[in-house]
Amino acid sequence: MCTKLSRTSGRFRTTQAFIALSIIPEGGVASKTISIARLGAYEIRMFSGLPSWQGGVPLIWIELFDHGARLSLDSCGCHEIDDAVAGFDALVAQAEIPN
Q1: Cα angle vertex 86, ends 85, 87, to 5°?
Q2: 36 or 57: which carries more pLDDT confidence?
Q3: What is the side-by-side strand order in the sheet with 42-48?
């Protein structure tokens, strides 16, 4: 379980997840998902769009998921790895804010 993530660690984790997603074989109708970090009851995960998504739809999504409430709190679409890193950093900041 992570309690505090450095900017370098976040870039590394996000890049690893991005690469790992790209090598998971397409499995039909379900999206591919990888957990990037866990901060208490929160999880930040990356998932790819469905193969049928095209055009301006983001290549991947980053999501902040609350396991206690069992719901997605926020997400962002990303077209490039730098977008994913920025999205990850924003979601980490959101997860670290006390309620």
Answers
A1: 90
A2: 36
A3: 33-39, 42-48, 60-66, 71-78
Radius of gyration of the chain (CA): 13
Is residue 47 within 8 Å of residue 31, measured between CB atoms? yes
Alpha-carbon span 55 to 50, nearest angstrom = 12
Question: What's the pTM?
Answer: 0.79
Which pair of structure tokens corresponds to residue 88?
A: 């990850």
The domain ranges of the chain are 7-96
The alpha carbon of residue 64 and the mean position of all alpha carbons in its chain are separated, in whole angstroms, by 7
* 3, pLDDT greater than 60: no
Each residue's pLDDT tens digit, 42-79: 999 998 865 555 565 667 889 999 999 999 999 998 88
Q: DSSP strand E in the chain: where?
A: 33-39, 42-48, 60-66, 71-78
